[in-house]
Each structure stands twice: as C-alpha cells, then as structure tokens.
Amino acid sequence: MNRLGHLVGAYGLLALTAALFLAFSLALPDTFPTLDNISAVLSNQSIPALLALGATIPIATGAFDLSIGYGLGLAHVVTMWLIVTEGWPWPLACLVVLLGGTAVGAANGVVVEFAKIDSFIATLGTGSIMYAFTGWITDGARIVPGPHGLPPAFTDLYDSRFLALPVSAFYVLTLTAALWVLLERLPLGRYLYVIGSNPRTADLVGIPARRYVVLAFTGSGLVVGIAGVLLAAQQQTGNPSVGMDYLLPAFVGALLGSTAIRPGRPNALGTLVAVTVLAIGLAGIGQLGARFWATPLFNGSTLLVAVGLAGYAHRRQLRRRRTAP
C-alpha cells in the first residue's frame, strides 16, 4: 500500500495529463489533437513554463520570488527599448538584459538574506520598483518598432521551428534538463533542498545558507531575463502592462509541480508536468467555448489545490521520515 501510494503521488499528475489530453481529444477530435493545436499550445505556454521553472529554484530553499512577473515586464521592455529606441545590435541588447536579470536576482537574494526581510515582502517591494522603472522607460506607452520591424534573426529566437515544433518548447526542455541535473545530481541542489527543509540542520552541517539562497535568487533572475528576451521576440512590442499576467501561472506550475515526480519538494520534472496539465486544461476549456473569466478562475482554483497538495505531500514525507527504521 505504501508503494502504491507513492506511485499515485509521484505519477498521478502525469496520468491526469494523459487523461485530460484524451478527454479533450474525444470531445474535440477535429481541432484538439492536431499538430497545429499542439504547436500553438507549446508556443503560448513556453514563457509561463520558463517562469515556473525559474520560480522553482528559490522555492527549493523555502523562499518565494514574487518579483518575477514585474521582472519579466521590465526585461522585455528594456530589450525593445535598447533595440528600437537606442539602436543597439540585438545580441548586445539581449546580453545586457540577461546580465541585468541576473543582477536583479542577486539583489533580491541579498535583501532577503542579509537585510533579513521575508521573501514575500522583499520581492514584492523590489518588483514594485521594477514596475516603476518599466513605467519610466516607456512613459506608459508601448514601444513599437519602425516600418522595417525588428531584425528577423531576433524574432526567430521565438518564431522559428525545430523538428516541426516551436523552438521555444525546446528552450523549456533544455532548462528542465539543466535544472533536473542541478537539483537532483549536483551537491548544490542537495544544499538547496536541505536549506529549504530545515535551515537549522543546514547550519549544523556547515552549509552557508546565505550564499546558496542568494545563488537561488540569482538563477531565478537569469531565467526571468531569458523569458523577457523571448517575450520581446514573441510580442515584438514593448508593453508596460504585461508581466503580472504571468505571475500566477508560474507559481501554480511550480507549487503544483512539487506534488509530482518528487512529492513533497519542488523539482524540475514535476514543474514541467504541472505546466503541461495547465496548458492542456486551458487550451481545452478555451476551445470548448469558455468565457474570458474562465482562465483566472482556473488558475486561481488550481493554485489553491496546488498549495494544499504541496503541503500535504510535504507533511506526508516528514511523517515517513520519522517512522522509517
């Protein structure tokens, strides 16, 4: 029974993914299981998936980065501003944005660990500051390219295809693989998990918690920078109001993912499965004719379920450790 419970907990969400895809395919046989629809879903959900993977890194340490939505908005606006307004070559503009995202992530970690401010409050404050910078750069207006548009090589970062699928989906798979290796196979990942599960134990065994929490936020900032560059290549305009729409789906994916594959702890494969469930669910209800309010209702309800299941999985894991011989 313990083995069965473990299998259900670890792979139940994966089974739900297959069941949802089958159900919507039967209900919408002419549109849902087609290659065009799958490509559209992969393209639309790539940026939320990247943000969810980025949010997973600090969550592994028990911290939350609420600035990722604001950071995404700032990163994509700065990318467009440097390319369109300042006339920078797009590779240099992308590099500056990635370095900026990394620096902002490190600053978040320093504020949380050295200023001893709760991660919710700290990242909400830094996110508000980033939103102010977004408004200052754009003056509240969109950044629109000139008549010649953006460089095709830049837009191809998101619009091109590989093996008949959007290239953005392969970015998600690459980041998932990298995070899986980092969290599951390298000492750094084990240190992050120890810090997140029991900071006192981390101190006793000599793990420098401050350093690794700052590194976790730095990694999250780098991922946000990457997502911002891709969002600019996707939308091809600088919209100062975009960004916060991606915050809730990112945390839903990260928290729901902690109930799958490795129940009780955030993990990259679980996050990928959770994002896939959300993508299939949103695409299915959208094609069935759901109203515009169905998306926030779905995301909010799933977030509540995700938090409840994540807490239950964590408590179950602690009970199993206490009773293990």
Can you walk through the features of this model?
The structure is a single chain. The chain has 325 residues and is mainly alpha-helical. It has one domain: ABC transporter involved in vitamin B12 uptake, BtuC (Orthogonal Bundle). The chain has 13 helices and 2 strands. The chain has a two-stranded antiparallel sheet. A hairpin with a 2-residue loop joins strand 1 and strand 2. The radius of gyration is 20 Å and the shape is globular. The relative contact order is 0.18. The mean pLDDT is 88.
Question: How would you describe this structure in keywords?
Answer:
ABC transporter involved in vitamin B12 uptake, BtuC, two-stranded antiparallel sheet, 2 strands, mainly alpha, 325 residues, single chain
The H/E string reads HHHHHHEEHHHHHHH
> pLDDT under 50 segments (min length 5)?
none
Shape: globular
CATH uppermost class: Mainly Alpha
Q: Strand percentage, roughly?
A: under 5%
Biggest sheet, strands in spatial order? 1-2
User: In whole angstroms, how far apart are the ends?
Assistant: 17 Å
Short description:
The chain is mostly helical and 325 residues long. The protein has one domain (6-318): ABC transporter involved in vitamin B12 uptake, BtuC (Orthogonal Bundle).
Write the layout of secondary structure elements.
Elements: H1 2-27, H2 35-59, H3 68-85, H4 90-113, H5 119-138, H6 152-159, E1 161-162, E2 165-166, H7 167-185, H8 187-197, H9 199-204, H10 209-235, H11 247-257, H12 268-287, H13 294-323
Antiparallel strand pairs: 1-2
Helix pairs in contact: 1-12, 2-7, 2-10, 2-11, 2-12, 3-4, 3-5, 3-10, 4-10, 6-10, 7-8, 8-10, 11-12, 11-13, 12-13
